[in-house]
Amino acid sequence: MIDLSTYYLGRKLRSPFVASSGPLSKDLRNLQKMEDAGAGAVVLHSLFEEQILMEGQSLDRFLSAGADSYAEFASYFPDIGPYDLGPRSYLQHLEAAKKALKIPVIASLNGSSLTGWVRYARDMENAGADAIELNIYFLPASFETSGAQIEESYCDLVSAVKAQVRIPVAVKLGPFFTSLPNIAYRLECAGAGALVLFNRFYQPDFDLEAMDAKPNLKLSTSDELLMRLHAVALLSSRLSVDLAVTGGVHTAEDAIKGIFAGAHVVMTTSALLQRGIDHLRHMQDDVVQWMQQHDYDSVSQMRGAMNAGNVGDPEVYQRANYLKTLGSYESRLQTR
Amino acid sequence: MKRRQLTLDGNEAAAYVAHRINEVIAIYPITPSSPMGEWADQWSSAGEPNIWGSVPSVIEMQSEGGAAGAVHGALQAGTLTTTFTSSQGLLLMIPNMYKIAGELTPTVFHIAARAIAGQGLSIFGDHQDVMAVRATGFALLGSHSVQAVQDFALIAQAAALESRIPFGHFFDGFRTSHEVAKIEQLTPEDMRAMIDDELVRAHRARSLNPDRPVVRGTAQNPDVYFQARETVNKFYDACPGIVQEAMNRFAALTGRQYKLFDYFGAPDAERIIVLMGSSALAAEECVEALTARGEKVGVVNVHLFRPFSARAFVDALPRTVKAIAALDRTKEPGSAGEPLYMDVVAALAETVSFERTPRVIGGRYGLASKEFTPAMVATVFAELSKDHPRNHFVVGITDDVTYRSLDVDPAFSTEDPETVRAVFYGLGADGTVGANKNSIKIIGEDTPNYAQGYFVYDSKKSGAMTVSHLRFGRNPIRSSYLIQKASFVACHQFSFLERVDVLQLAEPGAVFLLNSPFRPEEVWEHLPAAVQQQIIEKHLRFYVIDAYRVAKENGMGGRINTVMQTCFFALSGALPREEAIAAIKHAIEKTYGKRGEAVVQKNFAAVDQALAHLHAVDIAHADVAHALLRAAPALRPVPDFVRNVIAPILAGRGDSLPVSALPIDGTYPTGTAQFEKRNLAREIPVWEQGTCIQCGKCVMVCPHAVIRAKVVAPERLATAPAALKSAPARWKDREQLRYLLQVSPKDCTSCGLCIEVCPAKSKTEAKKKAINMAEQAPIREQERQNWDFFLTLPEFDRNALTLHNVKDIQLLQPLFEFPGACAGCGETPYIKLLTQLFGDRAVIANATGCSSIYGGNLPTTPYTVNRDGRGPAWSNSLFEDNAEFGLGIRVSLDKQAEFARELVRRFAPKIGENLAETLLKTDQSNEAGIDAQRRLVGELQAKLGSEPEPELQDLKALAGALVRKSVWMVGGDGWAYDIGYGGLDHVFASGRNVNILVLDTEVYSNTGGQASKSTPRAAVAKFAAAGKRAAKKDLAMMAMAYGSVYVAHVALGANDTHTLKSFLEAEAYPGPSLIIAYSHCIAHGYDLVHGLEQQKAAVQSAYWPLFRYDPAKDGNPFQLDSRPASLPLEKYVYNEGRYTMLAQSNPEAAALLLAEAESDVAKRWKIYERWAQGAQS
């Protein structure tokens, strides 16, 4: 009997496959399908503090526009409300998900102020979340703020949230750190229970006809996995924090690689968007088949088998490997 | 239950009672009564019950006529039913009022009394509407204050139920309907105590019911009608007693005793003024002052005007009275006297109570909210002292034509020095009025003070000035007039100092608070000399704050309201500082709490920051800096009428114009908006000629016609100002000419639509377009000079242009310019286009609404003339009759043309066979033909010269009718879909050559966004507070069903060429043409700078399909001009606040309605698609 179970954020999951935060999880029916397809846990879509602020500001702006400025009317709209400008509908969705699912439900939060992060994390805990994934999506644009300051603020944020909630907290990071091991270690010290590697930053494209930048949302591909494998393999040998691979998990092979690198869970959304939620079941079946073919009994047996501490040549994950690779490329060119 | 002290306005006070003691409420918007309907709809939407525990049914009707019919029906079916209205609305109710009264049906109509359109429309208050219904059989009960409005709303209902006579409960529009005052609120228990359930049951028992059937509304013959009419007498005889009895019961309940005729003054008064409404308070204030001086004067405040109890009136008078002045807030031209005067005369004549019957004189005052002050009351008392007082006088204006006015002493004042009197000059957009409403609520409800707030607005919707008048203090406030001596003046806009005498009202020693971009130590030198002078002479205590800076730093943008409000509390001492700040914050939470924490917090921050930036200005050593006196800019030559009439109105001195200054029949010159120069823009568009592709889109969309293009010969620019830009014209075969794109810097409103629509981008800096916003101040003078020069350049020859081409259209002179519409208005570009294409031969019938307000609200009109003096002739008749009005114009013009042709034929030998034949046969289907016909008509008129024959003179006068005229009916969806639809439908059927432009904003925009039948499903609007449940009416389909009506469905922002083609085809079509034009509107709830994008989204989502139905076309008349949906409907609708507010307040309902709306769109598209494929033909 193949044991797919794994541990993540203090809970035993029946499977390492987790539906990552994405648009599918906005619909309760999709969440149920994910559970039916065998997901070990689900991460809900992110609650964006900025969006809450923006909606409030925008409501204020249009209710105020033209008000009390002309004799024939004092306003253009009836004074209705209350308006759901806070996290109410998100929390209701979270509660409903908790009620409907047996697998753990992880809430995802993207704040824009320290008070916002803490406040909404507390709300999520109260609404029944099994854990919270802090979706740190920060694009520095200031010339004055140093990388060290930003990293410090991430750690402060994790400490602040951890001080207010009892449930485990995962941190979803982007890949662009001068020293990933260092920030990963500091986040672990700050109380992070897991690191989710990596967030995908949506980069606008140029519309050459309109001479304008346009949003460009592209789904991930398996090619993006490599960077994650490298990071997880490097970190898992030294840190005790849980690790999740997200971005680029499209096939059973991708998942297996992630687990070999040391991931406790592998997360996927793009593949489900492209092929349907049932694809999760197929990937899982394929993993089982692979494990059978390769005589693996359990996921825990596989986890980290190829991390930096367990490969024969740990340099493969280090700088020396870069030189080797370059060298091999050059020699190939010379032999043509 | 303890009664609460609340601060609210008259409309809310009336609606509060009406909603709780009725079961059915039929509503329709009209200023100034609309808020009563809005409150009722809102309360019912929120599930607020009446005193019987049931939520009243509120139904919006298509007109006031419809509302009255619905009320009549609901009453007949046995429910307690009410309605709210004013002015023209009340007139539309008259037929049903006769019926309701004739059938002895108890109800109360709550009326915010307002002027009636005669020589001009006015939204302001007087008693003309009430007087127009005095013969209907309704009892008329007048309230004089906000407290009385609430109290009489209940007393009227109680009396109506008992007397079986319907009541019109009226109060002065604006002065009382919109005055915010502190009152004691009635409790539901009070209402229960006053309303006798037995009488309610009796009302129900009289209802139409098939279980006990009766017939009502019979037709009666000469044998019995008269007697039947007399059956009601005893009910009218009993009514005054019943009302007084209700007033007495009310007094026992609340301690407030009213009488049918309330007398105030000396018990031995010899001179008495009789009047009704809010003016009674100003009169009482004056009487109090005069009696304190020993004068024997008094005032009778008439409450029950109908049925008029002569006995009760005479009993109210002291026996000592020798002379009475009856003042009417109405005008009845040609009568022996105004109604109240006539009643007083008759009452005294019929009632023998005096040894010597007092002398009675009558006078008019206060029409259309003209101020009525204690000084005017004193003037009337003085007149009564004379041996031969003037009768039928007017007071409050100067009548230099028939010399009926009394001279008022402007120095007479009864302002209470113990009362704080604060005047605030603000900008509509800065939130001043909203903050002041909050302030007066705080003072009224958090302190033992009495409080009053009244707000004055100007006639423009963009860049409008507001003036707030706040009074508060320990003494009751009866001052039903604007503050005349202010102890506190705040000017929230520094630029006002240049154009408004803001310190005129400041009394010596008053506080002057100025929002100033200049620091306290430097502000003095930036003040106009007249302001400096008044500060010194009146010893004003002068404070400044840079409120814009504080607001901006706290994320408030241009909303300086809370900053200035905090300063007001700090300086006025209305409350201890800490208490004031706490109260302001509480009010902020109450007002903005629903809009989210962040909004509340930024307001809090602005409050906290305000006082740190408030500075006293040391003027101990200040002097009037004569050297800095700014020279007034040289004015261009202006017509006498503009100089003598319009300019004083613009300067806020319209009240001082005498009768002789004004046109006798409401006829005003056009082309006057150009003289206004409101200078609103902080930023204006600046042209980059190197980037520009000269497409003309910016010119096409500019709602205010401030950005214009010309193509001229290079030599014309020889004397151009150095900064004037031009570029080689990008027209085939015209490359040698120069193209200019010029902005009028002082007429621009900074709406930004031109920038949004500009398709050309800089090759080296993507964010830059061919026009870009730049700060106005540094380039204002340069651009003014450029604009003035630009205007001197010749217009391009219309005959040489391709009118189907947007690029060419930019060169047509707009004959509609600088309207005072909202910045970025979605309607005005269509009207401007109409005038560019057909303006020189257009007659426009304009339904009442936004387009009639920015089109014809004095003092100026945007309609103008070309160099030949031709331009649109424009008139507004009413709201409901615009289609019929326009049709009448068409029929008249056709008749004149027909007669002219008959005369041409008849006198062909005399005028020359050739000329006659050409005149009759000229093809006028294009510009050249129309031009040719104009020349021929000129030739004919010259030829007819001074021919003595009368018929030839007729021909000379009528010859102009031989030139093709373009008749347009313009109006909004409130007119076309609702109140005017019956007439519009008749016009469709008439087959006459008229053009109908429906500016579809999908709400009653002008009255503040009430739902119409055009309002889409799922949108929130007033009167549809829970979201519109029904689908938008398909007016286009209804018109197309005739098969003989040209119909176009257009959206300028989505396809300007399609719009242009539609206008040309509609005008060319020889029958009725209907253009339904998508008009983005501030009532849609988003920044109008995105209006054109949103129009595009409306079309892409198939919500607003573009199509044309041309009966003159060969084959299928229907052509679908847009593509199937390529954007989900929700992506379109959720850009707009009117939809998102429902999603945020009631997501389940929003989701359901959105699904239904999607289905509406899909079904409609399917039908149109089939039509386009030929299924209909």
Can you characterise this structure?
- The complex is a heterodimer of chains A (336) and B (1177).
- Chain A is α/β, with parallel strands linked by helices and 336 residues long.
- Helix content of chain A is 43%, strand content 15%.
- Chain A has helices at residues 28-36, 49-64, 88-100, 114-126, 147-164, 180-190, 225-236, 252-261, 270-275, 279-293, 299-302, 319-335; strands at residues 6-8, 11-13, 17-19, 41-48, 105-110, 131-135, 169-173, 194-197, 205-207, 212-214, 242-246, 265-268.
- In chain A, the strands form three sheets. Chain A has an eight-stranded parallel barrel, surrounded by eight helices. Chain A has a two-stranded antiparallel ribbon with strand order 1-2.
- In chain A, helix 1 (28-36) links the parallel strand 3 (17-19) and strand 4.
- The longest helix of chain A has 18 residues, at 147-164.
- Chain A starts with 5 loop residues before the first strand and ends with a helix.
- Chain B has 1177 residues and is an alpha/beta fold.
- In chain B, helix 15 (432-446) packs across helix 20.
- Chain B is globular and about 90 Å long.
- The model of chain B is unreliable at 627-634 (pLDDT under 50).
- The chains are: A alpha/beta (336), B alpha/beta (1177).
- Chains A and B meet through helix 2 of A and helix 2, helix 15, helix 22 and helix 41 of B.
Q: Which structural class fits the helix and strand makeup of chain A?
A: alpha/beta
Helix content of chain B: 25-40%
**N/C terminus separation of chain B:** 69 Å
Quaternary status of these chains? heterodimer
Spatial arrangement of strands, main beta sheet of chain B: 1-8-18-19-17-20-21-22-23
Low-confidence stretches of chain A: none
- Please give the radius of gyration of chain A in angstroms: 22 Å
User: Quick check: average pLDDT of chain B?
Assistant: 95
Strand order, largest beta sheet of chain A: 3-4-5-6-7-8-11-12
Radius of gyration of chain B using CA atoms only = 32 Å
The number of helical elements of chain A comes to: 12
Strand content of chain B: 15-25%
Question: What structural class do the secondary elements of chain B suggest?
Answer: alpha/beta
Largest sheet geometry of chain B? 9 strands, mixed
Low-pLDDT regions of chain B: 627-634
Tally the beta strands of chain B: 38
Helix coverage percent of chain A: 40-55%
